């Protein structure tokens, strides 16, 4: 069992890691001010970005939900790994060799360890890829070839082959030092009375990767006639693989999704391959489960989905399963800020079959020919009825009205009401009345849901308030205090120790600000050194730690000269204190007996000293 990682190594790994690169694997980050980046929070669902990252400080903070911390805390909270695992992952990423104390000799190797599961998956991926070139894998190569994929395409997507043997993968991985317990935890084997056996046998295998590119599971396609298992078999739920949160191809598509503000959601692994090879490099697919809320949150984070300018395009098969998928997607449409569309191939062909039949251009035309989700759903509903009869047209109108009623934008709603009237053969006024009626019915349900939601919020509220920094206070005194603390946390190297020491002598009106000021003063000797924010945060009571983090990440209006800005902020704080002190001394001088020359002289000297210090501030 390994010991504790050496503290100096922990600090070195953090110092050499760009927090924006790590968080950028999960969230689309955009400039949010000088030295700051913003995106949609990965810890809660939101429409406008309140998640801030400040690479220069090595911190993040969400001003919506209050989550914040350093790069280690981000991985611990989001990926549910231990602190040690977070350090080990980042060390491996930058090629840093960690040292372990107290008899340590390397990373822990328990069966449920995330790092060991990921290592086993990586080794399995390499094994499957190598097997694809073996004679036994001819059915797999033939399957790919019949769908227009050559060896280069297979390599690009990591496609491999699982041999028919019951234990070939198991023996291979055990030879590499993995235990049966670790392989079981990774979902690579199944359990039986006499031990474990390979889960995937005689199948074509696709590696499923998370947004960072780590292999977390596999999807396997049946090839052999004597295989009585399901057509597609996926990795079961494991500590690293949660099928409701995973999108196949996201590791390849994420950068183009963020750049193009578009994502294409298809239904299978081969559809993703076909789209990417045809130039639609924003395509992803679910992995053996329906498209759901977790998938939406993942897509929104990667897109930076905070406006209506983006596009989410779904492709659905024309069969019954495809129609159900369309209905489910429509039910979640409101969760997107982006516009939602549906793309349907000619003759109902999916992207893979369309590419095979008509080439790459046809796939691109299919996506370019997308229709708005609302239009698609209205047509789907209306076309179920006999529009040659009055009864059928009336039923179609009633069925389509609830769809139009869900449209938030009034202008768009009126436009789709007109489309519903046209498709169903109804009068526009009848369509508008039907939509309003559907709205009234839906509003009662919505209010009930809202009441239930508010009750849930009240139940989950913390018993003790958490002190966090949000927007700048309205009071100018507290606003100056807050900005000064932010400067000292974020730009300590720009202000100098003497100016910082003077600023930290200023009495603060806000009690929370005063606590943090005192913590800074106690750590003043280490101002600007690596770990400065960590030391300040460790110095304050636990309840104040989120505020320190928020101040270390909040946006500063530094402009093109951060040093000048930082000095001016602290000088403003000091000058405000000097003016306050001058007012006190001036009032005291006015009350002093004119005959008390000595006291008056001391007050005048103090006032002159204040004026002199104020002049020095202005001349700096």
UniProtKB/TrEMBL annotation:
Its EC number is 2.7.7.101. It comes from the Bacteria. It comes from Leifsonia xyli subsp. cynodontis DSM 46306. HAMAP family: DNA_primase_DnaG (MF_00974). It catalyses: ssDNA + n NTP = ssDNA/pppN(pN)n-1 hybrid + (n-1) diphosphate. Residues 261-346 form the Toprim domain. Its cofactor is Zn(2+). It is an enzyme of class 2 (transferase). Residues 437-462 are annotated as: Disordered. A zinc finger (CHC2-type) spans 41-65. Monomer. Interacts with DnaB. This is DNA primase. Contains an N-terminal zinc-binding domain, a central core domain that contains the primase activity, and a C-terminal DnaB-binding domain. InterPro entries: DNA_primase_core_N_sf (IPR037068), DNA_primase_DnaB-bd (IPR019475), DNA_primase_DnaG (IPR006295), DNA_primase_Znf_CHC2 (IPR036977), DnaG_bac (IPR030846), DNAG_N (IPR013264), DnaG_primase (IPR050219), TOPRIM_DnaG_bac (IPR034151). One of its GO terms (molecular function) is DNA binding. Pfam families: DnaB_bind (PF10410), DNAG_N (PF08275), Toprim_4 (PF13662), Zn_ribbon_DnaG (PF01807). Keywords: DNA replication, DNA-binding, DNA-directed RNA polymerase, Magnesium, Metal-binding, Nucleotidyltransferase, Primosome, Transcription, Transferase, Zinc, Zinc-finger. Belongs to the DnaG primase family. Binds 1 zinc ion per monomer. RNA polymerase that catalyzes the synthesis of short RNA molecules used as primers for DNA polymerase during DNA replication.
């Amino acid at each position: 069992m390994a010991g504790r990682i050496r503290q100096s190594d922990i600090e070195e790994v953090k110092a050499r890691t760009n927090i924006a690169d790590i968080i950028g694997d999960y969230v689309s980050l955009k400039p949010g001010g000088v030295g700051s980046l913003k995106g949609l929070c990965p810890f809660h669902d939101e429409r406008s970005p309140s998640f801030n990252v400040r690479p220069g400080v090595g911190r993040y903070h969400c001003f919506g939900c209050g989550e914040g911390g350093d790069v280690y805390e981000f991985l611990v909270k989001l990926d549910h790994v231990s602190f040690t695992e977070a350090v080990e992952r980042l060390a491996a990423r930058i090629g840093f060799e960690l040292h372990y104390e107290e008899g340590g000799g390397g990373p822990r190797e328990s069966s449920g360890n995330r790092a060991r599961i990921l290592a086993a998956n990586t080794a399995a991926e390499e094994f499957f890829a190598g097997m694809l070139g073996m004679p036994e894998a001819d059915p797999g190569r033939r399957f790919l070839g019949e769908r227009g994929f050559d060896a280069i395409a297979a390599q690009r997507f990591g496609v491999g082959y699982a041999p028919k043997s019951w234990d070939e993968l198991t023996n291979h991985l055990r030879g590499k030092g993995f235990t049966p317990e670790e392989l079981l935890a990774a979902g690579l084997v199944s359990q039986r009375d006499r031990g474990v056996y390979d889960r995937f046998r005689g199948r074509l295998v696709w590696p499923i990767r998370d947004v960072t590119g780590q292999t977390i599971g596999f999807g396997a396609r049946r090839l052999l006639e004597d295989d009585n298992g399901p057509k597609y078999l996926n990795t079961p739920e494991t500590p690293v693989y949660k099928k409701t949160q995973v999108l196949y191809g996201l590791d390849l598509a994420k950068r183009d999704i963020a750049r193009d503000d578009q994502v294409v959601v298809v239904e299978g692994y081969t559809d993703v391959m076909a789209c990417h090879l045809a130039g639609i490099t924003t395509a992803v697919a679910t992995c053996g489960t329906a498209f759901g809320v977790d998938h939406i949150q993942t897509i929104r984070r990667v897109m930076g989905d905070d406006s209506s300018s983006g596009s989410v395009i779904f492709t659905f098969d024309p069969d019954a399963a495809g129609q159900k998928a369309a209905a489910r997607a429509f039910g979640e449409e409101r969760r997107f800020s982006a516009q939602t569309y549906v793309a349907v191939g000619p003759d109902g062909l999916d992207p893979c079959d369309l590419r095979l039949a008509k080439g790459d251009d046809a796939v691109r035309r299919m996506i370019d020919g997308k229709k708005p989700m609302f239009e698609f759903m209205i047509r789907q509903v209306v076309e179920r009825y006999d529009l040659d009869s009055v009864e059928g047209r009336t039923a179609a109108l009633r069925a389509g009205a609830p769809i139009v009623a869900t449209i938030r934008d009034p202008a768009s709603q009126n436009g789709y009401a007109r489309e519903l009237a046209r498709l169903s053969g109804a009068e526009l006024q009848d369509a508008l009345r039907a939509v309003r009626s559907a709205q009234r019915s839906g509003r009662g349900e919505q209010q009930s849901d809202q009441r239930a939601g508010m009750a849930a919020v009240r139940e989950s509220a913390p018993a003790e308030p958490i002190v966090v920094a949000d927007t700048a206070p309205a009071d100018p005194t507290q606003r100056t205090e807050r900005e000064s603390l932010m400067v000292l946390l974020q730009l300590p190297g720009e202000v100098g120790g003497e100016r910082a020491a003077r600023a930290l002598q200023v009495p603060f009106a806000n009690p929370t600000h005063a606590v943090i000021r005192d913590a800074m003063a106690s750590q003043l000797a280490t101002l600007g050194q690596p770990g400065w924010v960590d030391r300040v945060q460790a110095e304050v009571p636990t309840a104040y730690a989120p505020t320190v983090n928020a101040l270390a990440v909040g946006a500063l209006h530094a402009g093109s000269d951060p040093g000048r800005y930082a000095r001016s902020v602290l000088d403003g704080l000091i000058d405000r204190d000097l003016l306050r002190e001058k007012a006190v001394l001036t009032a005291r001088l006015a009350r002093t007996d004119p005959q008390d020359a000595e006291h008056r002289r001391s007050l005048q000297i103090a006032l002159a000293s204040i004026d002199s210090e104020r002049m020095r501030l202005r001349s700096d």
